[in-house]
Amino acid sequence: MTYDWDRERNQPPEKLRKVNAPCRYYTLGWRAIADAYGMILLTPEQSMGENADKEMKKRENTVKTNISNAWLFLQERGVIKKLEPASLGKNAGFLLLLGDDEENLAVERWARQCLNLPMIW
């Protein structure tokens, strides 16, 4: 769930430029992914059991670890780049690097401008 980039013009779409919104920037965190795919849901039998809370917490921890490991894997391969670390009450911000080097650089410049972050070479 990120805003699109105008690949044809290699710039943010006009409507996003007007509101200074970063493109291809993900900040919803691991929980949004887990919820979207039902990764933490228990079966009806599990949810009625006396250990439901314990099972839910165990599953939650496993899912969080798996998604965090997937993010590390994608960062190592240059598919995503962390621009902002997580902090208390705020998820990390990841830039999706979906284009060629020129496009990715333009997307990163725009995101950093929108987020008031310095450009790092």
List keywords for this structure.
three-stranded antiparallel beta sheet, 121 residues, mainly alpha, 9% strand
The helix/strand series, from N terminus to C terminus, equals HEHHHEEH
Tally of helical segments: 5
Through-space gap between termini: 27 Å
Q: Please mark out the parts with pLDDT under 50 across 5 or more consecutive residues, or reply none.
A: none
By secondary-structure content and strand pairing, the structural class works out as mainly alpha
Strand tally is 3
Gyration radius, rounded = 18 Å
Strand content: 5-15%
Q: Roughly what percent helix?
A: 40-55%
Rounded mean pLDDT is 93
Overall geometry: elongated
Mind describing the biggest β-sheet? 3 strands, antiparallel
Strand order of the largest sheet: 1-3-2
Summarize the structure.
This protein has 121 residues and is mostly helical. It contains 5 helices and 3 strands; from the N terminus they run H-E-H-H-H-E-E-H.
Task: Please give the structural blueprint.
Layout: H1 14-19, E1 25-26, H2 29-36, H3 44-48, H4 52-76, E2 80-84, E3 93-96, H5 101-115
Antiparallel strand pairs: 1-3, 2-3
Explain what this protein looks like in three dimensions.
The chain is mainly alpha-helical. Helix content is 49%, strand content 9%. It has 5 helices and 3 strands, in the order H-E-H-H-H-E-E-H. The chain has helices at residues 14-19, 29-36, 44-48, 52-76, 101-115, and strands spanning 25-26, 80-84, 93-96. Strands 1-3-2 form a 3-stranded antiparallel β-sheet. A hairpin with an 8-residue loop joins strand 2 (80-84) and strand 3. Helix 2 (29-36) packs across helix 4. The longest helix is centred in the middle third of the chain and has 25 residues, at 52-76. The radius of gyration is 18 Å and the shape is elongated. The protein starts with 13 loop residues before the first helix and ends in a 6-residue tail after the last helix. The model has no long low-confidence stretch (mean pLDDT 93).
